[in-house]
From TrEMBL:
InterPro entries: MGD_biosynthesis_adapter, MobB_dom, P-loop_NTPase. Pfam families: MobB. One of its GO terms (biological process) is Mo-molybdopterin cofactor biosynthetic process. This is Molybdopterin-guanine dinucleotide biosynthesis protein MobB. GO terms for molecular function: GTP binding.
């Protein structure tokens, strides 16, 4: 069964930094992990101007780039819901799907905060834990540098 956990928090709270340290620990323990990064700020590019994939996309086609080591799908779309992305592309292929962002999707979440008083903004989903260098009452708490403990906590949720 695939477990979906959202990492949410304010901009520059440390979500990506924590994830880049926790994910290798989880992978080393044998979990298949995928991350869905929510980009709420408009367009983004993953290929370079002038490359074949860029030319094909700009000709009007959606493009899937496949190599022996990785794959990317560049598709025109209005923003799909997290549920759609999860069901269509990720569910069943991974033990753990982590979203970075999607704070309004209401999924089970680990909240990363720079200050405890910002927690109110993220209470519209089940809060599994809080990562903050100051204590936050009522939830399992981790400091940003406790990546091994954060990984243990996430691993326990996947292996329940």
């Amino acid at each position: 069964m695939t477990v979906l956990i959202s990492f949410v928090g304010t901009s520059d709270s440390g979500k990506t930094t924590i994830l880049t340290k926790v994910i290798p620990i989880l992978v080393e323990r044998g979990l298949r992990v995928a991350v869905v990064k929510h980009h709420a700020h408009g367009d983004f590019e993953i290929d370079k101007e002038g490359k074949d994939s860029w030319k094909l996309y700009n000709s009007g086609a959606d493009v899937l780039i496949s190599s022996p080591v990785k794959m990317a799908f560049i598709r025109r779309a209005s923003e799909d819901s997290l549920d759609y992305v999860y069901e269509r592309y990720l569910k069943g292929d991974y033990d753990l799907v982590i979203t970075e962002g999607y704070s309004r999707a209401g999924k089970d979440r680990i909240v990363v905060l720079d200050r405890p008083e910002k927690l109110e903004y993220f209470k519209h989903g089940k809060i599994l834990a809080v990562v903050c260098d100051e204590p936050v009452e009522g939830y399992p708490n981790f400091r940003r540098d406790e990546v091994e403990r954060i990984a243990d906590f996430i691993y326990s949720l996947v292996k329940e």
